[in-house]
């Protein structure tokens, strides 16, 4: 396999999420105990059924909505 594109990586994550091993919903957040960032399947409020939506929401939150489509 050659170079893996960003689209392929996001598609892979979405395919794994779609298997609904737990909730089928994902959130991107900074760890509450200082261990870095997380993109994880969760039942927490504010989670999304799309990996891309979770990442976009995090980007908009961090930059206070300054991300263009």
Shape: globular
Biggest sheet details: 2 strands, antiparallel
Task: Determine the fraction of residues in helical runs and give it as a percent range.
Answer: 25-40%
Q: Mind telling me the C-alpha Rg?
A: 13 Å
Which structural category fits the helices and strands?
A: alpha+beta
Count of helical stretches: 2
- List low-confidence stretches: none
Number of DSSP strands? 2
Helix-strand pattern: HEEH
Strand order within the widest beta sheet: 1-2
First CA to last CA: what distance?
Answer: 30 Å
Mean pLDDT: 89
Strand content: 5-15%
Quaternary structure of the protein: single chain
Write structural notes for this entry.
The structure is a single chain. The protein has 69 residues and is α+β, with helices and mostly antiparallel strands. The chain has a domain of 45 residues. A two-stranded antiparallel ribbon has the order 1-2. A hairpin with a 6-residue loop joins strand 1 and strand 2. The longest helix is centred in the first third of the chain and has 13 residues. The model has no long low-confidence stretch (mean pLDDT 89).
């Amino acid at each position: 396999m050659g170079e893996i594109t960003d689209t392929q990586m996001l598609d892979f994550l979405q395919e794994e999420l779609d298997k609904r091993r737990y909730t089928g919903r994902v959130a991107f957040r900074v760890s509450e105990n200082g261990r870095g960032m997380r993109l994880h399947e969760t039942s927490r409020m504010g989670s999304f059924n799309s990996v891309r939506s979770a990442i976009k929401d995090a980007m908009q939150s961090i930059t206070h909505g300054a991300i263009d489509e």
